[in-house]
Write a structure and sequence with these properties.
Blueprint lengths: L16 H31 L12 E3 L8 E7 L15 H8 L6 E5 L7 H6 L1 H6 L4 E5 L2 H6 L3 H15 L5 E5 L14 H21 L4 E4 L23 H23 L14 H5 L3
Parallel strand pairs: 2-3, 2-4, 4-5, 5-6
Antiparallel strand pairs: 1-3
């Protein structure tokens, strides 16, 4: 895990040379101490002796309530789509949300997601995604860019190019934003505050870029941020969400996913509401 920490700017101080030197010396020491603290926390966070969880392939068949034409969904992204530590791929939020919608047609989900990917790696898989002739593409990336300090302007430009490329070969794209990474249990203060601001900045850029494309739909997961303040939604590595966390993501992303599929099919599939009874698949824990 790597984090770029910028140094705060010290303003001009109208003091005598001796006083100015003392103040600047104290300020420099304070900044150096802060950076050292953050640097130490980065190393501690990255190298804590915690379980290493294995990601899954979310690909699979999600049956519909009727035998309508099959809809192919290709997923691109990072470990948010591979679900490290989950019992099975049916617990990954995208499959949960697709099952909960109780669509009148089956979905063939093909996942090309790779844990740890930043946007640059996701973009490299775009051509492969289009070769699969998807009806819909779902993109979930940005968390690793926030963690590793990717320039937000470069990130936005890259996302814009990715969406433009994908829309040349598919009817609609769903793009997930980034939740509050300051909630991650594994990350202590003050490093968690840095990640909170980084994730907010990346998420805003995602929302802005998606808003510029007519056939791109935002899958807004930030409604789940409150739920992620509970450490019980994280897996054994204290970093990746467990089944409960993925359910929170599914609940948050479901309205956008319903709009995405409506855009792809040119119809208006029923949007499942959290006020409705739980679908059969959720009650049984299977798809």
């Amino acid at each position: 895990m790597q984090l770029r920490v910028g140094l705060p700017h010290l303003p001009h101080l109208p003091l005598r040379p001796s006083a100015r030197g003392a103040v600047l010396g104290a300020g420099t020491a304070l900044v150096a101490g802060s950076v050292a603290t953050l640097g130490g926390q980065v190393l501690w966070t990255a190298h804590r002796k915690l379980p290493s969880l294995i990601g899954l392939d979310a690909s699979g068949w999600i049956p519909g309530t009727a035998d309508g034409p099959v809809l192919r969904v290709v997923a691109l992204g990072d470990s948010t789509l591979t679900g490290p530590g989950l019992a099975g791929p049916e617990e990954i939020w995208l499959r949960v949300a697709l099952a909960d919608l109780a669509l009148p047609y089956p979905v063939d989900l093909v996942s090309l997601a790779v844990g740890g990917s930043r946007l640059a790696q996701v973009r490299a898989a775009a051509d492969h995604a289009l070769e699969l002739e998807p009806d819909v593409v779902v993109v979930a990336a940005g968390s690793n860019d926030a963690i590793h300090g990717t320039n937000v302007r470069a990130f936005a430009d890259g996302l814009d190019e990715l969406i433009t490329t994908l829309l040349q070969g598919t009817s609609a794209i769903g793009v997930g934003n980034v939740g509050d990474l300051g909630n991650v249990v594994r990350v202590p203060q003050p490093l968690s505050s840095v990640l909170r601001q980084r994730s907010i900045s990346i998420s805003r850029r995602i929302e802005q870029v998606v808003g510029r494309h007519d056939r791109a739909i935002l899958l807004d997961v930030t409604a789940s941020d409150v739920g992620f303040r509970d450490r019980g939604v994280f897996g054994e590595d204290l970093f990746h969400p467990n089944r409960t966390g993925h359910q929170l993501w599914a609940d948050a992303a479901r309205p956008g996913l319903a709009r995405l599929l409506a855009e792809a099919r040119g119809d208006h599939p029923r949007t499942w509401s959290c006020d409705d009874p739980a679908p059969e698949s959720e009650a049984t824990g299977s798809i």
